[in-house]
Structure formats: C-alpha cells, structure tokens
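Hey Z.,

So I finally got round to the adenosine monophosphate thing we talked about over coffee. Here's the setup:
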Amino acid sequence: MLKFAIPNKGVLCEPTLQLLKQAGVAVVRSNENSLTAASSDGEITFLFARVQDIPAYVCAGAVDVGIAGLDNVMEDGGQAQVLCRLSYGDCRLAAAVPEGSGINEVKKLDGKTVATKMPGLTRKFLEDNGIRARVLTLSGAVELAPKLGVADAIVDQVSTGLTLQANGLTILKTVMESQACFIASDVALREKADELAALKLAFEGVRDAAGLRYLMLNVLNESQLKRVVEVLPSKESPTVLNLAKKGEYAVHSVVPQSELSGLVVRLKRAGGKDILVVPIERMIT
Ligand code: AMP
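And the result:
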C-alpha cells in the first residue's frame, strides 16, 4: 500500500487529478469532503493535503510520495527527492514592488519590509543578494500588503502576472522558476522502488504526450509517399506501411498539435488522403 499526498485545492489540484486519470490511476473518493481516497485497485491511499505541507509530510515519512510545486519543496528545505517534473502549475517566485515606488533594483530593498508566504526562500534570496530586510510572513493575498502599508515589497508566485498588474505591482527580480513535481522520501525510494518507478514512468508518459497528436494518412503511389514524408515534422522517422493494394502506403507520425492546421493542408497538397488525427494518452521514449 502506497501513501500518496496530493493538493486538496489551488492551481495544482485539478491538473493533478487529471494527470492521475491519464496515468491510469483512478482516485475513488467516497464523498467530496473526505480528505482520503483509494485508487480503484486499492494499491494506493491518497491524502488530500495543503500543497505547502506535502514536502514536509513526504520528508517525515508520513506519506511515501506526493505532488507539490518545486517552490514548496525548496521552501521546505529541499530534502524531498524530486523524481520528475510534471510540466503544469508553472510559475515563478518573484520579488515585486509597487509601481513608482522608486525601488528599481534589488539592493534598494535594504532596510525595507518584504511580505511573503515563502519566508525561507525569501530570506535566502535576500541573503544571496546581501540585503538586510525584514520578512513579514503572511498566509495568502500577499499582493495586498504594500497597499495596506505593512510591506514595501512582496515575494510571491506569479503565473500570468495579472494579479500583480491589478494591484499596481511590478516585478523586480525572479527568485526561482517552479512547476509541479512528483516527490518521494528517501525511505520510499529504497523500500518501494518498483512502485515509484512505475508511477514515474506513467507520469512522464502523460507529460511527454501533452500537445502531441498521432497522425495517420494514406498515399496512392511512391511519388506522393516521398512528398508526404518530406512535409512531415516527425519526431524520429515516420512509420510507412504497405497497404493491401500494391504501391499504396499508410504513413503514421507523431506531430505537435500546434502545427496541425498548416500541416494538414500541406499533406493534402502533397497527395495525402484519409487523414486521421488521434490523441496520444502517453508517450514513453
Ligand atoms: P497570476 O495572476 O496568474 O500571476 O497568479 C498569481 C496568483 O496566483 C498569486 O496570488 C499566486 O500566489 C497564485 N499562483 C500563481 N501560480 C501559482 C502556482 N503555481 N502555485 C501556487 N499559487 C500560484
């Protein structure tokens, strides 16, 4: 039985449930308010936890594995083992100041007050830059602090930048880049290596398939085949199969979804017929 902590709310919650579903791990929750759930095969117990607490639960051995932001892992001291990055929940932890504050370089934070939910990383950032500043720890809505006059600057997670903009703040410096990660304790890595390796492979497969599509088409002769293969941006080399009718071929390839609309037009012009585009659940290379 594997204990697996996942975020109970916030930006990482929904994409994590989606990742588990695509990786073939069904999370069966008896009711919406329950903080635990089992996988459909009963092999995994899920614990819905605050994302900030997940690295500490993992390090303490309270759970074997978890999903949390890399920033949460580093804030906790970076002791949890990062098995893989998951390519969602991207953000940067950034120092920001009110527009027109006159604080236009990091050294001007000297003697100021910096509000944050991440005091550990904030103190390290200030120390690394030789700044002596007071760190005010808040548990949320950090962007309010300068408006309320309790801080001169903030260090917070920024994704689109819209929250900063809406609150009259501008980025001074990026502290670190972050995204969701699959993490494990040292003990789980030693004692449950096979289960962890299987989950890692499944998660990486889902991650690497995101944004890719499987494309299939037919061509009726060798010259069309040559032209179609030239047009394809195949990851490796496209698969070419003989059809039952001599001289006709099926061509299969993995292509980025973003290139599909233009590509389909070029393939048709090159002689491609019966073009099919299908989703890829996982890509294991
Ligand atoms: P945005 O307006 O898109 O830049 O989002 C900023 C707000 O969302 C801030 O309140 C952040 O604390 C929060 N936020 C953005 N990205 C993340 C993330 N990856 N993890 C946790 N909180 C985030």
